[in-house]
Amino acid sequence: KIKKFYESNKIFIFSSIFILIILFGSLTFYIENKENKKILLSENYIQAKFYLENGNKSEALNTLKRVIFANDPTYSTLSFFLMLNQNLITDHKEISSLYDHLLENNKFEKELKNLLIYKKALFDSNFIDESVLLETIKPLLNTDTLWKPHALLLLGDYFMSKGENIKAIEFYQQILSINNLRKDLYDEVKSQLAIISHE
């Protein structure tokens, strides 16, 4: 029976074995390739830091940009913030565009992604109008995230700085309605509301 089964199905058996070998080989190649890419990115990141230590900001910037556009959640993000911390880019449109690139081309854990959205909104708040800021920060307002009270505080401060105190109060009061709010945030909101009430 076994021989008969083999004779009638040998093409299927060999095809299945061949496909499994190809799949295994492809998977092994993918894993090794991914690991090699990670190693190369880490080396580029270290090289960029070496350039900075030696005052070669131009080479550092080029290297960091290559890592950012390699779309690795870890090294692209590290490279971006190293670039910001070293003031290698000052054009706000380019910085905002790089924030967008990171968010659109990498898979982050939920809270890390929310942190990046908040940092982008915080940065952009100095340059963009109300509607764009609200659109940028909307993902944080519509979800239960650690960064929601920070986002509301940013909006309250944004409107307070523009003299739109009614809007500012609205966002500050939303913060006070959050359960288990950190004391430093609570104190800051109360302080801002006190300033508004004395104006």
Topology:
Elements: H1 2-53, H2 57-68, H3 73-85, H4 92-105, H5 110-124, H6 130-141, H7 148-161, H8 165-176, H9 183-197
Helix pairs in contact: 1-2, 1-3, 2-3, 3-4, 4-5, 5-6, 6-7, 7-8, 7-9, 8-9
Bin the helical content. Answer: over 70%
Q: Tell me, what's the shape?
A: elongated
Our estimate of the beta-strand percent is under 5%
Radius of gyration based on Cα positions: 26 Å
| Mean pLDDT over the full residue set | 89
Report the major sheet: none
Total strands: the figure is 0
Distance between the termini: 95 Å
Number of DSSP helices? 9
How does the helix and strand content classify structurally? Answer: mainly alpha
Unreliable residue stretches? none
Q: What sequence of helices (H) and strands (E) makes up the elements?
A: HHHHHHHHH
Report on this model:
The structure is a single chain. By secondary structure, the chain is mainly α. It is built from nine helices and no strands. It has helices at residues 2-53, 57-68, 73-85, 92-105, 110-124, 130-141, 148-161, 165-176, 183-197. α6 (130-141) runs antiparallel to α7 (148-161) and α7 (148-161) packs antiparallel against α8. The longest helix is centred in the N-terminal third of the chain and has 52 residues, at 2-53. It starts with a helix and ends with a helix.
